[in-house]
Amino acid sequence: MAPHSPRRWRRAAKAATTALALVVTGSTGYTAHAADYERLVNGTFSGGTADPWWNGAGTSGRVTDGEFCTAVTGGTTNPWDALIGQNGVPFETGQSYTFAFDARATTAQRVSAVTGEGVAPYRQIAKQDFDVTTTKQRFTYTFTSTLDFPDAGNGQATFHLGGQSFDNTVCVDNVSLVGGALPPGGGPGAPTKKIQVNQVGYLPGLPKHATLVSDSTTPRPWTVRDSAGATVASGQSTPQGLDAASGDNTHLIDFSSFDQAGTGYTLAVGDDESFPFDITANPFAELRHDSLEFFYHQRSGTPIEAKYVGDTYARAAGHLNVAPNQGDDNVPCRADLNCGYTLDVRGGWYDAGDHGKYVVNGGISAWQVLDTYERAVALGDADALGDGSLKIPESGNGVPDILDEARWEVEFLLRMQAPSGMVHHKIHDANWTGLPTLPAQDAQPRRLSAVSTAATLNTAAVAAQSARIWKTIDPAFAAKALAAAEKAYAAAKANPNVLADPNDGTGGGTYSDGTVSDEFYWAAAELFTTTGGAAYRADVTGSPHYRGQSLSTRGFDWASTGPLGDITLAVVPNGLPRADVAAIRSAFTTTADAHLAQMATAGYPVPYRNPDGSYDWGSNGLVANNAVVLALANDFTGAAKYREGVYRTMDYLLGRNPTGYSYVTGYGDQPVRNVHHRFWANQLEPSLPTAPPGVLSGGPNSALQDPIAARLLQGCKPQKCFVDHIEAYSLNEVTVNWNSALAWVANWAAEKSDGKAGCEVDYRSTRWSSGEVATIKVTNTGEKAWNGWALGFDFPGGQKITNGWSATWEQDGAAVTATGLPWNERVAPGRSTYLGFVATSGATDADPTTFRVGGRVCSVG
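^ Endoglucanase, sequence as received from the core. Prediction below:
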């Protein structure tokens, strides 16, 4: 995740200029007419930075005393040989604009103020020359646009400073471009839909919901239409009123009763129609693999081969010290650190849309990919994650492909360890690379940032996890990983407060984190689970994060890693007391219940909430991680409500949100296309591709932390603070840790919707006037043993359990959960366990009809 990315620059082509009116004054004040819209960002440079203004070749600029001053090297031939400018400027054909600015120069020279297109064919809208002197003057001209960029796609404003024989410094201030008919963000953007659906697919037998935007306070009739346009279902919407997160007046459309499998369905209300969707047994069968194959595309230090990704996405290896690269094989520390050594840090995954590799983001990403596998082995079905499941070079080597992919990053994390045992925080270019730039074309020198406690603990945690996973697969690698983990943990204990520099943001993101107690807890949990060591156990049980204390409705991410330790302790067998493991699991269900309660009142249900209602940078990653919490609550209890919550979360990510976008590339009729990335950069360079299918966009961000977002989205409601633009990096970037969350959830969702029950229930009851007694036989009809099970069902008539046996019984309203005891929690394939209860009568005394184990619906014997 790059908190700052440099803007690209393009030379504007020559073209005719229309309807120019020129004014030059000595005044430095300018006020736009009230009806005008300001099109430029940061024209006053009052924040002390020039962003998003850029400097072209042969120039260097900085903000000094509130002016943007650029040093220009003399001897250029043409005015456009030295440029400064701003991209993403919106223009509308036929509309009037006034370009105004203050300027002065060390030596008097001619400067051109130009507007036009920032990409090929670089068409020009308007150009005017001004004689700038040593005295600051106000310059103004008015023109009519001949081009149309209403959504800030490829418009550009520049100053041409070249064509002089002498070196010079030119300063500009109070730069303004006002005009146009549409407000910022008023362009076409996403096609407007008043009915938002999961654009990929819904599961038979589960709730199917959509959101209608309507000011009506009474129900609206809706219909489901098949691909031929015929009506196949109908009903009435439920008004929900004003939705705070989106600002929309919403209605719920519940079409759960329609269960016919098919493709190309649409929902219609009056003249409004949704995007198409399917009803299918497993809408996530392809996404589970595409979301994992993202990581092969992000590999550093190896060619991305066409036989795995196709010709469109194949590319040369990056950062192998092949010109123009300076390579990752012998990387020194940043000049001011004087560490006295270099490291070979080849490999790993490029973190995001840039060419940096960051340990604290790589750590959670590698861990989550590995946990996708480890959780499936412990609680689910790992067969779909086996060897041959992904299109990667290691496929066919006898090791599950998901582990091969994760190992590419784990090996890099181990290489980032310094001789002291501490781990360097990150490695990236000395300066930000331009956009777009393929990795093999990156000429920047590479530099290691300082070591940090957070990076050291990330490596300790992932290496310890790797040691237990590879113990029987590759004992030598497992031993190497464990040695690195223990060395790193000891180094972190000796250096507990070495925090990453929050100002180290040149060339790469800072990833600074002021609190590392959560990383200590996570690393100790991994080391304890792997080794059983008493010292690690003491650090786990003595942590303030123990037993789920860091779970929250905001969610977890690279800076909040305590829940990762909780997941390991709750899923992987270890030596903790059963009551403590139960308490950790209970923390997940408590947090999951808070998510469900919030989702129940939302117009666009999603498991995410900050106290102030805002959405953070990478909100979609947090949403996906909160879906992990819901999924684990289902694993731990078998309660259907949590499984349904996961699928409703996927609805949001795949289109049931107020932007109308599927936030996953290649999925749905309107997926995001223009994610912030240096080589999936089709919006800037048509010869380059868009992102491959299965890549998660960062999503809405209330803070609008990039110039495109700031220009287009001021005043947006939290869920609408989004635009599908490659330079909106605070909204539309992609990162390894957001995709690792998507991959975890997509694999869980695919597993839980594969149609294989794996269980059978024989339910028998005897009733009398005031109650009943029931005996239940539960059979494992799957191929793997259950190491812990939970049976869930709903009473149809209001019965209340008063006593039960052979399980821990819990009841919440109609929902009942029975969890296995130590003596019967393991059920081998083909074997059964028996349990029962006594209950009081309800209004009616019908038997339950649907039973679930591990979230899967069981057949009834």
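The domain at 21-179 is CATH 2.60.120.260 (Jelly Rolls).
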